Amino acid sequence: MAFALEFFLRRISQGVLIVLAVAFVIFALLRIAPGDPIRIILGPMATPSAMEETAERFGLRDPIPVQFLRYLGDIAKGDFGNSFIRGKQGGTTGGSQDAAGSPPVERAAVIELIAKALPYTLLLAACGFLLACLVSIPLGIMAGVRNNGWPQKVALYLSSLLVSLPNVWVGIVLIYLLSARTGWLPAIGYRHIGYVIIPAIVVAIELAPVMIRSISVAVATNVQDPFYEIGQVRGLSARAMLFRHVLRNAAVPLLNSFGAQMIGMLLGGLFVVEYIFSFPGIGLLTINAVFQRDFPVIQTVAIFASTVLVFINIAVDFASTTIDRRLKF
Amino acid sequence: MGTEPLLTVENLSICLGTGDGARALLSNITFAVKPKSVLGIIGESGSGKTLLSRALVNWVRAPLQVTAGKVIYQGLDLLALPETQMARLRGREIAYIGANPTTALDPTVPVGHQIEEKLRTIEPGLSGQEARKRVIAMLDAVRIPSARSRFDEYPFQFSGGMMQRAMIVDALISNPKLLVADNITQPLDVTVAAQILRLLRDLQRDFGTSIVFVSSSFGTIVDIADEVVVLDKGKIVEAQDTGRIQKSPDHPYTRELLAKVPRLWHGVSGVPQVHVEPVVLSVRDVAKTYEVKDRASLFKKNRVQAVRGVSFEVRRGESLGLIGESGCGKSTLSRLLSSLEPPDRGAIEVNGVDVATLHGDALLSMRRRFQLLLQDPYNSIPSHVSIGTTIAEPLRIHRLASGNGLRERVCAVMQEVGLSPDLYDALPVGLSAGQRQRVNIARAMVLEPSVLILDETLSALDQVEQAKLLDLFDNLQRKHGITYLYISHDLAMVRRACARIAVMYLGKIVEIGDNETIFDEPAHPYTRTLLSSVSTVEAKPFLPKDYLLEGEPPDPIHIPEGCSFRSRCPFVIETCRSVEPPLSTRAGTSAAACHLGLERLPMPSVMTPGRPGSDLKQMDSL
């Protein structure tokens, strides 16, 4: 117990620092990079004086550290700001308003935008991840246990094939084959659960090769450990050794590659896939926000994503040390 | 014992590979194991004894092939048995314990739980609670201290000896009729190995299990076995009663094996003498403590006192032996001496210069004079670099030679350590352990060091190779006046090689003295315990029944107050509980840290004729 308490205290405090650092870097880069959000808000016809006035009102002319501290202060009060662009009703309202006309309070709160998009993203991520697991876990285990033979070859060829397919291309081909050509499945946007199938396949195709490979390597390493064979000589069945001991040991490297690599891949993959399929999740929201220089949305998504990553890694490390007590984090 | 044998092996042959390229590893092995008896199988490394012991439990995997023969257990040929039937015997009636207990269990599951898992697989009707009770009772029976809490501890929290006890529990929990023990005492400290042997004998008597005990040590075999089978290059050359084989071995190979068993007291001549040359290495009150996290409490750290104030001096051209059980701080001391880590306090002086004061080039040139040789000959040499380049690397680092001069010096040193200069451009692949160790020696010697620290350098080698390298070390010492520091748990080697010996226990030197004093009239009970635990074929002056206590050293986090050895000392008196005995000088350069005088310890049971100067001929030399 003491160990767990100290672990979480230490890791969460480190995590907060990491999230703060990420937030500051994103915050500063957005403001340094070219592209003025005011131009997009007010449209190409706005006068320089109107633009300057709006910028002042949004606080964009203050030094970056001052802006950042003010931003943190707002977050502490639970206010993640409002979108520069999106209106309360959901439509994009850039480029058609005069400076004095619509005050920013009418714009949608970032937190609400995210709350609306998040369930879609979670659904897509869960479906894609489950689909990938369905294929990779059995195949990876079989390939790992028998280091020669057909499962190993299938695993190798399948993961080589999948890893070389770019997800943009796979997405378009699947839309063409399963939706446009045959009409079996809906593809663009979201109206019901059927809309998630094709995008989930694309996400799974991206994750599967990495998972097959890491599962088969982790299982193979542990099958070669003396305890696997000795266990059978001790009188336990090969099955019992595999399911009670080998998989337990293999879980540690798998959790690590999950926390370090796959979550990152999943997030990146989701952005692209949501954009291709106009899937109304966080990814689409963020990509549009980037095109529109919608600073508050980008910042909040970045903070949100880094928090998720940090916490998943804390959870992964805690799970690893619970499984294998030799590990110290 | 005229009963039917429990297990018979008939004409067993095993090959590596198939077809024309097949190499016979075992040929025509035939022997029988009687019920309730111990059969010893002895052979050197490479004789096929591990393979044989695995064949007894039908654990022969490709590319190994059984080409002929039977292993008959109670009328069933195990090698021809279908896997389902074999599975009904394995771990139930026939148990197997291997040489390396630390890798035998899943590292992520508590030891007791894994034994319980096995028990419940064998007896599916057993409730969890009942199985647990039986495992704990059995752990108690093999004298694992506080078995109840140990039940929930993980393999990495067990020492090698404790782990081997746990594996014995695991093997015996199913009341097997036959136990195959493959070299089970080999990786253990002498004191622990002696305890395990004693334990196995008791259990064998109580449970009536037949044991096939495989070992490479003659001393161990004669200690435990009723009958002995001698294995040489995959063939049985002799099979006899234990008593007879010691007195009248028939086969020349058996005689050779017996002769190779190192003698510690009888027929020892010409042990190295103490030197009067100037002091090269002086260690004064060196200590090192490591901090490790305590998992059970918040922010608390445990202090592991690895080395607790060690002082000694080594003279030019002398060899000092540092002996003690694992965990006594030997290896930490070697790290401090080779300045891989600084000590917390105390000073290490080389030729009168404190090493801690050196930096940069001065430190580099000191390091040149000071070389460390480690135990593992495989991981200490890069496998993708040619042998010559490996040996030349120190010369490059110290910028001592280049071009042709470099190659010449490397070839010269290769010749000196017994490596052919033809190997200069070869990769180390295919070198034997002994040759690899020679590469290590050459790499150290090329710098012309004045001190060599040999941290278990010879432990991984067999006795023949060990003897050759000891001769090499002798020659190098005579030629270059090198000082050696042997860090070892091998008493026979230290007896042969070292003029002075220091005995370490829990991070302190408890006794230091010249070779004869330490082996013939040691004053510390711990030294005597170590000597009593050696397995030899000769009569020992110190007997395990007088000195050997159960248990292992306390962990270096909780060191007992007073004398640190008091928890295992059979002669403990009231003073020992409160007062820590200082290392006090006895005669000459010898000193011991014990409150008791020699007169309070038992007399040696045999007088040893092996004193230097005595005319006794060494009967069988190595």
TrEMBL record, chain A:
Belongs to the binding-protein-dependent transport system permease family. PANTHER family: DIPEPTIDE TRANSPORT SYSTEM PERMEASE PROTEIN DPPB-RELATED (PTHR43163:SF6). This is ABC transporter permease. Signal peptide: none annotated. One of its GO terms (biological process) is transmembrane transport. Its main location: membrane. Residues 118-320 form the ABC transmembrane type-1 domain. PROSITE patterns: ABC_TM1. The chain crosses the membrane at residues 12-33, 120-142, 154-178, 193-212, 254-277, 297-319. The keyword Cell wall biogenesis/degradation does not apply. One of its GO terms (cellular component) is plasma membrane. It is found in: Cell membrane. InterPro entries: BPD_transp_1_N, MetI-like, MetI-like_sf.
From TrEMBL, chain B:
CDD domains: ABC_NikE_OppD_transporters. Residues 7-258, 281-531 form the ABC transporter domain. It is a peripheral membrane protein. Gene3D superfamilies: P-loop containing nucleotide triphosphate hydrolases. InterPro entries: AAA+_ATPase, ABC_transp_ATP-bind, ABC_transporter-like_ATP-bd, ABC_transporter-like_CS, Oligopep_ABC_C, P-loop_NTPase. GO terms for cellular component: plasma membrane. It comes from the Bacteria. The keyword Transcription does not apply. GO terms for biological process: peptide transport; transmembrane transport. Belongs to the ABC transporter superfamily. This is ABC transporter ATP-binding protein. It comes from Metarhizobium album. The lineage of its organism: Bacteria, Pseudomonadati, Pseudomonadota, Alphaproteobacteria, Hyphomicrobiales.
